[in-house]
């Protein structure tokens, strides 16, 4: 190994920092939960669980319905990751598919897939990029350590004359 090439520890550290930056720029956890919500919805109707020698089947009236819902949830989770600007559409669609899965896919993949799709879709709808988040106002201004900033201006009491309306008090 040459002195110029980075070691394994530096490469891993760089990869972790790159992944962290990528994850912060999109609704990562919303996409992950939506992806995971599709797994039980697809798996449970097509599995052959057994208890000792007793085989039973959790089949739906339409096994393809659960397959379609699960694949669509998987695609919506990937959409939240790779096209974060369409997160609201993907979140609403995930919520609707989660609700439909109750009827079509064995009570939403035995409730697990339903809950994951609902929570992931809700997180996708509510996620806001960092540049669009409102900044805290002067009332919430805090200095280092979370204490109120003494340099922050105090809000004027209600009805006080601040000189902007010609000395009139609005009541």
Automatic annotation (TrEMBL):
Transmembrane segments: 28-48, 54-76
InterPro entries: DUF6114 (IPR046096)
Biased composition annotated in UniProt, kind: Basic and acidic residues: 161-171
Keywords (A to Z) from UniProt: Membrane, Transmembrane, Transmembrane helix
Region ranges (Disordered): 129-171
The UniProt record lists the keyword Transmembrane: yes
Name by which UniProt lists this protein: DUF6114 domain-containing protein
Lineage: Bacteria, Bacillati, Actinomycetota, Actinomycetes, Kitasatosporales
